[in-house]
Write a structure and sequence with these properties.
The complex is a heterodimer of chains A (411) and B (154). Chain A has 411 residues and is mainly α. Chain A contains 16 helices and no strands. Classes of the chains: A mainly alpha (411), B mainly alpha (154).
Amino acid sequence: MISKKVFGVALGILTAIGGFVDIGDLVTNAVVGSRFGMSLAWVVVVGVIGICLFAEMSGRVAAASGRATFDIIRERLGARAAVVNLIASFLLTVMTLIAEVGGIALALHLATGAGPMMWFPVAAFAVWLVIWRVKFSIMENVAGLLGLALIVFGVALFLLGPDWNELKSQALQHFKNPSETPLTYWYYAVALFGAAMTPYEVFFFSSGAIEEKWTVKDLGQARANVLLGFPLGGVLSLAIAACAATVLLPRSIDVSSLSQVVLPVAVGGGQLALAIVIVGVFAATFGAALETALSAGYSLAQFLGWSWGKYRRPAHAARFHLTLIVCLVVAVAVLATGVDPILVTEYSVVFSAVALPLTYLPILIIANDPQYVGEHVNGRVMNGVSLVYLVIITAAALAAIPLMVLTGAGA
Amino acid sequence: MSGHRTRAAVRRTTAWLIGAAVLLTGSSCSSPQKDIAMSAGTGTSAVQTVRLTLTALDNEDLTSTAAEVTVTDALSELSKAQSQLGAVAPTTPRDADRLAQVGAALDQAMAAVKNAQLALDGFSGAPSRREASKAVAAALHELQAVEKKAGSPR
């Protein structure tokens, strides 16, 4: 019994590590590493603490109330406030889905050489098929565990033999790249923060709690998943940035494609490492595509009071499944226009920062309402830290668009 | 009354937002020097990527499929750099001179990277990888020299 529980906790942590990194983290960390070295490592730390807070609160709300996030947000804040939240979250989630489907196609393009255009519909169809046919727990665990292949970034970093003191000094001091300005530095700080704190992760986490029928008894495991899994996922993000800082920065290579993101791994670890990293990128983007597609369906269905969830037969949650299909079709249609998935990714992480207060604040309010969470309301320390984060999130959201305009989207 | 007030508030907010957007867009306007430097920087990044790819391939660290994808991506970046440069309207003779230098270096880089792509394809009559690597190194040297003259892109 104990070993089964330990196995469950270990599996949850490993899945959280593997599932932490998505196309946004992959691209943004590589871009930042290639342009600013490790000088923005502090943003990853701030972002990881933020997503831990955010996910812990929403998981607790779901487990204690037995109700999904958007269902409660609409009831607690009223339809008008909730609809703003819904529109922002839904559009951002669909944008992220487009980026993830694009990421799957780029990983397959890198593995096979066949153009990404032919992989867009294949990727979207595969995502739909898995959502339709595969059990929630299997889907989540397999994608998360395969995503652990991204640990190869860490292995490659050791094999590259970087100057650790140089990386450390970049991380601890304000690194100055003469070809960058303070505005681009702060633009990428916001983008990296948005990449670490994407709202869809929280909707998926809290709706998953309902799918897996969590109760307050499961809160310990949920906290272990979040508080151990996400920080270790953050270490993976830092490894991606460090690989780029070691190989690409000294050569003035700015990352603009997925092939450049994985190039340092090949340089450090050879063809085997390259094969592993492609598997990892495929798993990370595929897992995130499953999560974003489901999150789009969850948010709309929960707000409109439709029957939802994979634990129901598709015929009993028809509108939920139809939403997923429409979102996937939209993703393929957008990608078929020839838009660069990496560019979509870069914009999605910035808009993620813009939309964060709209999703963070309602969760914070509900996590303090005993009517929904009973005795499991936020403690003083939790509220103190959460309020500090509310200030950080609001500042990032307000700065995101002006920084985007002023820097020409970090150009 | 309340509807009128709301409409007035919406109008004021919209005007403020448009004003702010115009101000921000205006302040982010690019200059010919900046655009020329940016094109040179993008070109250097693409050619450096190709050089690293060819080295990794020689060391058997990279599969030929991944190398071909990487070089194709770099070609697309170079093409973007050329388009970006094509849109620059120089305002001084000095800018015009720099534009011509960066344009020539980008053309040389484009030819070298296309050569590398042919070498990777391995068709009969294609240049050898060694020749392609040499051409890429020469193009990189030229680009770095004009990038230095063009100054910092950001």
